[in-house]
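Hi R.,

Here's the input for the phenylalanine complex you asked about:
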Amino acid sequence: MEKEKKGGFSSSIGFILSAAGSAVGVGNIWRFPYLAAKDGGGLFIVVYLVLVLTFGFTLLTTDIAIGRRTQKNALKAFGSIRTGWSFLGKLTFLVPAFIMTYYSVIGGWVTKYIAVYVTNKGADAAQDGYFTDFITSKAAPVVFMLVFLAVTAFIVYCGVEKGIEKFSKIIMPGLILMIIGISLFSLTLHYTDNNGVTRTGLDGAVVYLIPNLDGLTLSRFLKILLDAMSQLFFSLSVSMGIMITYGSYVKKDVNLSSSISQIEFFDTGVALLAGLMIIPAVYVFSGTEGMAFGPSLMFVSLPRVFDSMGKAGTIIGLVFFIMVAFAAITSCVSIMETLVANCMELFHASRQRTSIMIGILSAVAAFIICLGYNVLYFELPLPNGQTAQLLDLMDYISNSLLMPFISLLTCIFVGWIIKPKWIVEEMESSGHSFRRKKLYIVMIRYITPIMMAVLFIQSTGLLNILK
Ligand code: PHE
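And here is the predicted structure with phenylalanine in place:
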């Protein structure tokens, strides 16, 4: 009866595409390529792949199995397993609440750039200061954020099967086609600069894929490891209750083990392709020095690259930003869905009313974040050495502090309190085998908690092991 009311994914492919939709977001398309470029190309990629198959797999399995076994959302799931642990559910709930405040703001920026290319204003976007002028202006970022948020809220309002699953089934294949298309195009590019130097897309792919071991020291390697680790969390949407919620919508006969492998494959595949699309293109037109790190990669460097492509640039720019919007929408939907599902469970309210309420609250919060670039502008030094505005501060609290801390507690909870067997039983309950069972047990009890503790301590700046 409960389950009927709750709704769920109608098929395992629907679940895989929806979970992959959550996982594949701006993190894959923008953050992964710039980290890869910064951290020695292929070296970062190898480290990341190893982490996905070990840590990523462990955390994803834990979340999804908890969701399916308890049939609850994070807020109630942990407490329903062990009464004393309901605080972990509350803590987990905080992460999507923090991320929701700013994700739609970034979604709004992407929407704005779609408008730029639709109206053929790509050349303007390539000018110095265009992006800063836009985000510091008062009205435009708010308007575009509202458009993005309205679409997100609409999908959540429509429900799991008719909203999230249906949209993911259309959007995700579309995204894959676009990303493959642009990556292939990127590889065919070539350009001769004023000094007569010709660079090709294939040269750029070499820069991206071949490990650069120049000047590699232990501390640099550790830095790369931590960069890859924090990217992994954000990218797989783990330790924030999202995959618990999605897990709770999965039918009991679905083979979780193979679904999880497919989600890992999807998320990592898109990240790798995004690098193959962006790095060669930037390299061809601006060399390795042109690779800006941070938001300016997507909103400043790439518009310049599109502008250098001439006419084709307008089309490629448009397709690129539509693709990013697709990726961002399915991620934002998963964040909002988690908030909505938890609140429905908590207040016994209908999906429609809860979606509207959460939609309004999110709009207010995102509005305040937009003000962070004008009225509420500040420069706050963070313990990890970065300088933050309001948006970065929210990102720091959710991703750098809460996520490793929650993962650490979850590992202790699963590894030592309820014991890995509890998860293993759920993974095998459909009659399928749990393929990486032994690895899972070792990872959840010993290796992951240690790594999470290191990551957490490093983010708090308490122990600056890397200096
Ligand atoms: N995983 C998404 C990405 O890589 C981001 C995300 C974060 C989605 C948090 C949901 C929750 O961009």
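One thing worth noting: The pocket of phenylalanine is lined by residues 22-23, 25-28, 99, 234-235, 237, 240, 242, 331, 334-335 (CB under 6 Å).

Cheers,
M.
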